[in-house]
Design goal:
single chain, alpha/beta, Rossmann fold, four-stranded parallel sheet, two-stranded parallel ribbon, globular, NAD(P)-bd_dom_sf, oxidoreductase activity
């Protein structure tokens, strides 16, 4: 998904700064982006779990970006998350603490500059806790709330914050799952939707519109009924 978003921004003429653990392994992606879209592409080592390294990471970028996108996700297994505190903590740190921390730092830099857009890819799983993935969902709920508050804080500072709720996406994280076709987006759809949201100044987007209806229904099911459902 992250690579698809990078391609979408590169196609729109944006220089790309790719950040990831083992960034050197993305050299073929770097070459593809640069040749296909004719933009500068740099690679940067980044560990979302290493909060002590966030400042050095941002300082080491060739330039403070105009748009920063956080697309970090680790679902794990619900049953394991329920029983293994360390595993649950890792999932929470990966989906909430780390992404919120790096965006908070970038928010301060963007605010000082007076411009920029921050994009956080969260999840529909955070719209309401469900028995089948509430540990992951609670982390994403926290991230969604963080993005909402950050957007409110920066609204008059020249910095915009976009929350992306992709729904199901055909990626390695969902491989092997029996996903409904009408609710499942391709990574390229996510990339196009994120670029459009930034260009249009959108606040919160679901990649496929049907998710607005799906999640509105789920959020409004009365709790006594909701407890009896297998969702």
């Amino acid at each position: 998904m992250g690579q698809a978003i990078a391609h979408a921004f590169a196609a729109a003429g944006h220089p790309i700064q790719l950040a990831a653990r083992g960034a050197a392994g993305l050299d073929t992606v770097q070459t593809d982006l640069a040749l296909r879209h004719g933009v500068d592409v740099t690679l940067h080592e980044f560990d979302v779990l290493d909060s002590n390294g966030f400042g050095g990471f941002v300082d080491g970028l060739p330039a403070l970006p105009g748009v920063a996108v956080s697309v970090v996700g680790y679902m794990g297994e619900q049953a394991e998350n329920e029983q293994d505190q360390a595993q649950a903590a890792l999932m929470m740190r990966t989906n909430f603490e780390g992404p919120a921390g790096i965006l908070a730092l970038l928010a301060n830099r963007f605010e000082a500059r007076g411009s920029g857009t921050l994009v956080g890819v969260s999840s529909v799983a955070g719209d309401r806790g469900r028995a089948t993935n509430y540990v992951y969902g609670s982390a994403k709920a926290g991230f969604t709330a963080f993005l909402s508050g950050l957007r409110n804080r920066l609204a008059k500072k020249g910095v915009h914050v976009v929350t992306v709720l992709p729904g199901f996406v055909n990626t390695a994280m969902t491989e092997g799952l029996d996903l409904p076709e009408k609710l499942t987006a391709e990574p390229s759809e996510v990339g196009a939707a994120v670029v459009k949201a930034v260009q249009k100044g959108r606040n919160v987007i679901y990649v496929r519109r049907i998710w607005w209806l799906v999640m509105a229904i789920i959020r409004n099911i009365p709790e006594p009924v909701f407890k009896k459902l297998k969702l």
